[in-house]
Design a protein that fits this description.
This protein is an alpha+beta fold and about 240 residues long. Helix content is about 50%, strand content about 25%. The structure holds adenosine-5'-diphosphate.
């Protein structure tokens, strides 16, 4: 609902759907502003410090440059994710699906990721219809989370198995886990659990958009996502993908 003054008359208008959009848009602008404020504050703070003392203290200089760099990367990643949604919401996200050997794709993806913590434990051959670039983007979201939300010495397992008409991929970590209440919200745009916020302490790349992008991609490939998690023990994200 919105109040509007026309001439000297006060007119009350109810927008229905539009009102929901308005509220959603306001929340969105609020979320984006909030996400930009932290890196900008860090950058401003370090630039001030550098201006005053930076040139005389090499350690301070290194710390400042590193923090400014991380903050700029976070902002860049936020902007790229926002652009993804801007295009997706306008149906302007072209997707070309072709037959893909999922086992090959997954193997190459993990090799290219180059993390000694990531292990493929099962790799059943199978074919699906997909846009490989989008699929890799989706895998990245699950893998980055599995790595980020578990201790740096803990491995992350990926397995690919098949059933009659589906391929099943599991991302398995032994990290901080997700509460039952949070499990229902983690695919919402900008949602992050309090635990995740505390763990990443503002200096890691986390804005709460990775899983909502993954879900968008999954929906366009008829992929079902399920989450099985125990706080303090770890999480398993399971993707069920129709095979051809
Ligand atoms: P973020 O950029 O914060 O990682 P995501 O959309 O990728 O955003 O994830 C949303 C939230 O879901 C995270 O902030 C975290 O609270 C939770 N989450 C996702 N994956 C995991 C995981 N493997 N282990 C624990 N928590 C997770």
């Amino acid at each position: 609902m919105q109040l509007e003054i026309r001439g000297r008359k006060l007119v009350r208008r109810t927008y229905g759907q539009t009102s929901d959009n308005f509220v959603r848009q306001q929340r969105f602008v609020n979320d984006v502003s909030h996400e930009l404020r932290t890196p900008l504050t860090i950058i401003r703070g370090y630039v001030d410090i550098l201006e005053r003392y930076g040139a005389d203290d090499p350690e301070l200089f290194r710390e400042a440059v590193s923090s400014i760099k991380t903050s700029a990367q976070n902002m860049q990643s936020l902007v790229e994710n926002l652009l993804f949604f801007a295009r997706a919401d306008q149906d302007n996200q072209p997707m070309i699906k072709v037959p893909v050997d999922l086992d090959e794709l997954l193997k190459n993806f993990v090799e290219a990721y180059r993390s000694p913590r990531v292990h493929i434990t099962k790799l059943a051959p199978c074919k699906i219809l997909a846009d490989a670039e989008f699929l890799k983007r989706m895998f990245t979201a699950f893998l980055e989370n599995a790595l980020q939300y578990s201790a740096p010495d803990k491995p992350v397992m990926i397995e690919l198995t098949t059933s009659d008409d589906a391929a099943i991929i599991r991302f398995i970590d032994s990290g901080i886990g997700i509460s039952a209440e949070d499990c229902g919200k983690i695919f919402d745009r900008f949602y992050r659990s309090d635990k995740a916020r505390t763990k990443l302490e503002n200096n890691k790349n986390s804005v709460g958009l990775g899983l909502s992008i993954a879900k968008w991609i999954a929906d366009r490939h008829d992929i079902e996502i399920s989450v099985d998690s125990t706080p303090g023990k770890g999480s398993v994200f399971t993707l069920t993908i129709p095979t051809i």
